[in-house]
Amino acid sequence: MQTDTRVDVFEEIFIVFLALGTLVGVIVVAYTLYNAYKYRDVGADEDEDLPTLGELPTGGKGGRKLFVSFILSAIIVVSLVVWTYGMLLYVEDGPGDNPGDDAVEIDVEGQAFAWIFEYENGVESTNTMYVPADTPVWVNVTSTDVWHAFGIPEERVKADSIPGEYDLTWFIADLPDGEEEIVYEDGIECFELCGAGHSNMKGDLVVMEPDAFDEWLEEEAAALEEDEEDEDDEEGDA
Ligand SMILES: [Cu+2]
User: Fold this and answer.
1) Are 201 and 148 within 8 A, CB to CB?
2) Per-residue model confidence as pLDDT tens digits over 211-221
């Protein structure tokens, strides 16, 4: 099953609004021009029965055109609202379960002025986030000091990074055809003015093949274990 990414959803919304807006715009302008031409001033005949000042217009057919245009507009607007709301609920709730079994969870911690990422097996990375492609990635965002905002414009992701609060959101990163890995340099940014280093509070997003991601995660975990063992040894020697 092909799951929509956030990028897909927002692109779809954009295209539907653009197409409908263009269609309605073309119809309105064309109809206006048509009427402007149809009722153009061709010079009135002397004996024509012209309306006089203060005379009420007649022949409006009970406002049928007005009624039809109003109903049409209402149908378009209401359908757009309902449809967009549904799409945004999907963006809010994520694909399938929240988070599903196939998903990857990453804890994100903002701190002045860096991003710390912690993966499910305890591995951490700073300012570089590694994610598997075509997999729902759930990020749980918080902060250790002041208010930040975690954002990845490329993936249409933004979440509050606030001390004591956890903002859960998700995304699915695509890998361009034939690519095994793609790096979005400075693809991660802070979107809340948080201090002197705010504009440097950036990170890279690395999208990898799922197998490569698992491998990387295991390697990092093994390295972590070795480090800990070394530390234990040193403590033992002392
Ligand atoms: Cu910040």
Assistant:
1) yes
2) 999 999 999 99
CB-based contact 162:150 (threshold 8 Å):
no
Q: What distance in angstroms lies between residue 175's CA and the mean position of ligand 1's atoms?
A: 28
Token pair of 64, please? 């049928």
Closest CA to 8 of 86, 124, 118, 87: 87
- Residue ranges with CB less than 5 Å from ion ligand 1: 148, 190, 194, 201
User: How far is ligand 1, taken at its centre, from the CA of residue 160, in Å?
Assistant: 10
Nearest-angstrom CA–CA distance, 107 and 144: 12
Tell the residue number behind the tokens 């209402």, with chain if given.
74
Query: Mean per-residue pLDDT for 9-26?
Result: 96
31 DSSP 8-state letter:
H
Q: For residue range 145-181, what is the model confidence (pLDDT) as tens digits?
A: 999 999 999 999 999 999 999 999 999 999 988 899 9
Count CA atoms closer than 13 A to 193's CA, side-chain side. 0
